[in-house]
Amino acid sequence: TENSSQTRNTTPTTYNLNNSNFDEYITVAGLNTVINNGDILNFTENISRTSTNYTVDKPININGNGFTLDLNTIYGYNLPSLDPTWIEFNHGASNSNITNLKFHNTQVFTTTASNITFDNINDTVENQGVGMYTGYFAMRNGVINITVKNSYFYAVNNTGCSAIAITLGENCTIDNNTVLGSGKVGNLIYLNT
Q1: 144 pairs with which residues across the strands?
Q2: Angle at the Cα of 48 (from 137 to 126), degrees rounded to 5?
Q3: What is the pLDDT at residue 193?
Q4: Which of 11, 16, 59, 77 is the most exposed place for a label (fewest CB within 10 A)?
Q5: β-pairing verdict for 61-63 and 40-43
Q6: What are the residues facing 167 on neighbouring strands?
Q7: Closest CA to 48 of 82, 77, 97, 87
Q8: What is the pLDDT of residues 75-98, one digit of tens each?
């Protein structure tokens, strides 16, 4: 039986992210151990990095508040010798919600995850090879029930890379989005088995 004197905190904790503390909460290895399932990561300003990768590995809620994450991705995911940069939502991030967040020149991956919703996302790529070999907003490697809705994607001269790409995905939904390209770009939406 459970000890009745112990109570579990079921109220999510909100962590305010800014350019100074971002790396304390999200790293290449995953989220900081203080972050629990269901907690909220709340952007309070634009965040910019270079040559750094990040992994979201717990079911959380990210509220971008209209701010931008810019990782200055120059090369694609499959080119390790070229120092790729990205943010990845992996299997551990299943059941997450990401809302009202802008990405600029940032490779976004969702891999092996399920039941993630991206709502009101703005993903812009300008004059860099973001998404080389994968697509710059890529859902891959067995994703299930990923929803991308009410979002805006725009690329200009990104060396021919695709925008939204689903590879080995099942039951994924792309709903009410605008996907535009200008200059040398790849497929706007690419579905691959």
Answers
A1: 114, 170
A2: 50
A3: 74
A4: 11
A5: parallel
A6: 192
A7: 87
A8: 655 555 566 789 999 999 999 999
pLDDT at 162 over 70: yes
* Stronger pLDDT, 116 or 128, i.e. the higher one: 116
Neighbours of 173 (CB within 10 A): 11
Token pair 């991705």 is found at: 73
Task: Give Cβ neighbours of residue 55 (< 8 Å, ≥ 6 apart).
Answer: 26, 27, 28, 29, 30, 31, 87, 88, 90
H or E element in which residue 142 lies: none
- How distant is the alpha carbon of residue 114 from its chain centre? 13
Cβ count within 10 A of residue 21: 13
* Cβ atoms of residues 43 and 99 within 8 Å: no
3-state helix, strand, coil in the chain (%, to 5): 5, 40, 55
Please identify which residue in the block is written with the tokens 């717990």. 58
User: β-strands 26-27, 30-31: how paired?
Assistant: antiparallel
How far, in Å, CA of 36 to CA of 12, rounded?
A: 8
Contact 119, 150 (CB under 8 A): yes
How many of the other CB atoms lie within 10 Å of CB of 46? Answer: 15
CA distance to 7, 68, 115, per residue, from 71 (Å): 40, 10, 25
